[in-house]
Amino acid sequence: MAQDVLTLAWKYMRRRKFATAVKLLDGRSEVYEDNFEYYLALGIACLYVGDVGSSVTCFQMARRLNVTDTRLLLGQAAIFLRRGDTDRALQYYMEVRDNDPNNQTAKDAMEFIRTRGDYDTICRWVDTGRIEQFYPPLGVNPERAASIIIPFIFLVLGCIAAFIFIPRNNYYEGSRKDLSDLVLTRDESINPQEKDLSGQTFKYILTNNQIKDSYANILSYFQSRRDNAAQVEINRILNSNAALSIKAKVQVVMSYLEPPTFDSITDVPTFDEVEADPALYIDCYVDWAGKISDVVISESGAYSCRLLVGYDSGTVLNGIVNVRFDRDPGIVTDQAVKILGKICTEDKKVYLEGKAVYQSVNDGFAE
Predict the structure, then answer these.
(1) Nearest-5° angle of CA 83, CA 86, CA 90?
(2) At what angle do helices 104-116 and 70-83 cross, to 10 degrees?
(3) How many other β-carbons are positioned within 10 Å of the β-carbon of residue 285?
(4) pLDDT tier at 159 (50, 70, 90 boundaries)?
(5) How far is the C-alpha of 70 from the C-alpha of 182, rounded, in Å?
(6) 13: which residues sit within 8 A by CB, 6+ positions away?
(7) Which residues make beta-bridge pairs with 308?
(8) Is 38 within 8 Å of 19 (Cβ atoms)?
(9) Which whole number is the average pLDDT over 213-237?
């Protein structure tokens, strides 16, 4: 069934295709003369595409027909807020609260003005697009909802099918989480750096290409089961000027990393590499060999010692690191040992959270 232009325009706007909505509505003023919804829709669409002048004109036309509509009041308030005229914006938000006391957009906007409504912050929010959270809300984007719900349904159905039809002992241990839903969005690829840098310091200042390359490496290393290599790139991004949305995604990937064993560990950093840049290797695993000293076993059973890294042969000492185990791992103190542990820090000092130990029946690790 054919739909009128105004209905189509609202559908495009809910899908966040504002430019298409503007093209549909532009030039239809004679058809929709004195139609409040027409001027409101065109005004909101123009506001979202950044054509504030046209938006003001449309809202003025709409206000001649209805002065109490919440969507219109939010749109006009947003225009004044964009300009830094917070007093006028507050007047409109108060009108919204009078008509709709529970309106969340008005509440959030008024709280923003109260706590962060200085002109410089408003300018940054306009520049980054964050100001759009105070625009007239359009509801859930059906395309975005479908992109989440449909894969989720297929995932659930797939899990059910796997549970029913695939024997437990046939699961492939090498399979890993599908990260296709974590690829960078178009906006993240174009603007991978965090724009609002006020009050923030970063250990690594990365270019756009460096951020994108680092993120691509994370996904590639994860699928290749090179979790240490992935963790290094995760740390690089988390301590950098990458956008917050990208940092959130790498934290999701990090939650899928798995503790290694002596047989599976790869990309082990050296003691010198960790000492030179500890932040880059936090949460990585190592299997450093050496000998131990200064063993302490607490009343609770916790075990700590110092590992003389590289001193398993008794000739070379790469460095000394503290090691902690939840309980006594049974290390023979006068023999060479290899410790599998996770790199951690406390008071800016590196230590290993011990996971496992290996000691040969012979003193040393001769092949």
Answers:
(1) 130
(2) 20
(3) 25
(4) low
(5) 36
(6) 21, 41, 44, 45, 48, 138
(7) 291, 320
(8) no
(9) 96
CA quadruple 106, 110, 115, 117: dihedral positive or negative?
Answer: positive
From 77, 74, 92, 67, select the one nearest 136 (Cα to Cα): 74
Q: Name, in order, each residue with C-beta under 8 angstroms of 356's C-beta and a sequence gap of 6 or more.
A: 261, 262, 329, 339, 340
Q: Exposed e or buried b for every residue in 127-147, given b needs 16+ CB within 10 A?
A: eeeebeebbbebeeeeeeeee
- What is the per-residue burial (b if ≥16 Cβ within 10 Å, else e) of 31-70? ebeebbbbbbbbbbbbbbeebeebbbebbebbbeeeeebb
Three state DSSP letters for 181-205:
HHCCCHHHHHCCECCCCCCCCCCEC
Q: Which residue has the tokens 């919804």?
A: 37
For residue 144 the two structure tokens come to: 């975005």
Contact 266, 231 (CB under 8 A): no
Question: Has this prediction a pTM greater than 0.70?
Answer: no
